[in-house]
Amino acid sequence: AEKLANVTILATGGTIAGSGASSTTTVGYTAATVGVERLIAAVPELAKVAQVKGEQVFQIASENMSDAYWLTLAKRVNVLLAQPDVDGIVITHGTDTLEETAYFLNLTVKSKKPVVLVGAMRPGTALSADGPINLYNAVLLAASQDAVGKGVLVAMNDQIHGARDVSKTNTSTPDSFKTPELGMLGYIQGNKPYFYHVSTRKHTADTEFDVSKIDTLPQVDIVYGYANVNPVALNALVAAGAKGIIHAGVGDGSLAAKVTPSLTAARKQGVLIVRASRVGQGIVARNGEANDDELDFVAADTLNPQKARILLMLALTRTSDSKQIQRMFYSY
Ligand SMILES: NC(=O)C[C@H](N)C(=O)O
Question: Where is the L-asparaginase N-terminal domain (predicted)?
Fold first, then answer.
């Protein structure tokens, strides 16, 4: 018989580790209560696809995710993947910020070995809980040679998504995770992953970011665009020390006349400004809705605001040159 791959499950909390008062409790349950050993014990089928080890890295609802937790997690993943006796990693995670953690790791993991994030939309106590099958699929994927070199992956609802482009798209349904226009990477069916797409953007072993010696990340905040917008929140964030601002603008990254002077003033003080869009799909192009060359702003391309924030934080650990940062937004 073939030797099974060694997969380490890093548990961080979320609804996949949640429990509710009854089998019909699908909201108002408690996230992050069940430990990694119980998650593994609930799916004995895991033993057929990998040699599984569990580690509780932290235990939080993912709305409480922070830069400090990200750094802890990325460092642990890199240490484990450098070991010859670890072939792949699964990270159990709350779904609210799962796409952000996936993208953070996509830019900071220094290995081609599979890293798969997984969560659940229903707590383990619910009827038709999705956690066990999602965990099984994630371990299967992390144990697969087919997943090597594909960047950080998300396994949810029998589908494989790439970290850069996946989003949570529904507040509660099990098919919440989608890559609407750029496309998911594949499926998991009948104990096998099937891949159809790969991202053209750089990730994992090919990135220029290194968090191994970093203990904090620069403050980057997001401001939202809307009709009748005022610059009060933006001004407050800049006054509070933001080193970068993601402007989640309307449409294709348009800037309202009432907000542009505050953005321009912030840039003159050295704050990096990235124009993104609140729309969710499509390009915010350099020198499109604004003259980025003149304003010295950066265009987010297709990254959503929360992922643009992650790239800008990591970019600022390397450079404060806006042209270099624009290059990164077209590379990652
Ligand atoms: N489905 C979930 O996991 C939601 C939960 N609030 C979390 O992100 O931790």
Answer: 6-197
Strand pairing partners for 117?
91, 154
Is the model's pTM score more than 0.95? yes
- Supply the DSSP symbol for 86: -
Closest residue by Cα to atom 1, ligand 1, is 121
**290 CA to middle of ligand 1, Å?**
36
- What is the 198 CA–ligand 1 centroid distance (Å)? 27
Q: How far apart are CA 98 and CA 196, in angstroms?
A: 23
**Contact of 194 with 219, CB cutoff 8 Å:** no
The string of pLDDT tens digits covering residues 70-110 is 999 999 999 999 999 999 999 999 999 999 999 999 999 99
Amino acid, res. 160: I
CA-to-CA dists, residue 243 to 13, 155, 264, 278, 303, angstroms: 30, 34, 14, 21, 19
Q: DSSP class of residue 128?
A: T
130, 122 Cβ separation under 8 angstroms = yes
Q: Whose CA is nearest to atom 7 of ligand 1?
A: 94
pLDDT in tens, 277-325: 999 999 999 999 999 999 999 999 999 999 999 999 999 999 999 999 9
60 Cα–ligand 1 center, Å: 9
Q: How far is the CA of 30 from the centre of ligand 1 (A)?
A: 10
Q: Which residues have any ligand 1 atom within 6 Å of their CB?
A: 14-15, 31, 61-63, 94-96, 119, 121
Q: Is the dihedral of CA 201, 204, 205, 207 positive or negative?
A: positive
- Residues contacting 296, CB < 8 A, separation 6+: 267, 273, 322
19 bridge partner residues: 30
Mutation probe of ligand 1 site: the residue of 96, 98, 154 with most atoms within 8 A of C-beta: 96
Annotated active-site positions, please?
15, 95
